[in-house]
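Sample intake sheet
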Amino acid sequence: MASVAQWAEINGFEYACYGDEFFDVLPTWYRQKLEGRGPILADLARLIHARSALQNGYEAVVWCDSDTLVIDSEWQPTTPTHSIFGHELWLQRDKAGRLDIRRQPHNAYFMFTASTPVLDFLIHTTQSLIRRVDPAHIAPQMVGPKLIKALHTFADFELEPAAGAMSPLLMQALLSRDPATINHFKNALITPPKMMNLCASLHDEPEIDVSAVRDGVRRFLMS
């Protein structure tokens, strides 16, 4: 979070960091149905907070997950036509064990301007899906990344290639200095990442050594 706060200060953005009060904006029925499902609760809460900021007169709102690492604090984000999401190159291995990269949107980063037609639709769709779904069969990313990816197929959202995401395989490669895996990822880049979501919930380690990860990213950018 410290790197995001510094980035916001350098760019002259007003910065807000939420605690547990973050979830207070959620409808009571939504919180009750998803009790204990923090990430899914957050998928809707972030949208409602973004809409509130725009309704209060802000020209645009940027969201970054708390496990976002800013690599270039002087990077100025692209202001979209009305809506933009992060663009991840998700490094993994396929069923045959070969390195594979999936290019897809993610909601750990987004920016909406006051003219967005997307935000209200996402809030409506998220609530509609959760209202109808069996609580015993709710996928962890159902109304977050999975919903954004499904809609992107039809809506063709603007995506920010500088706001990426780090898969567990990529993090492992950076920390162990695995050149083959790192180069496979680097060759697929559209632009050098300026910030990356560390996807902390997907990693085995209870705590991520952010300094080591930042150093690893800088090494592969300079190589």
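Comment: Residues 38-55 form the longest helix (18 residues). The chain has a mean pLDDT of 91.
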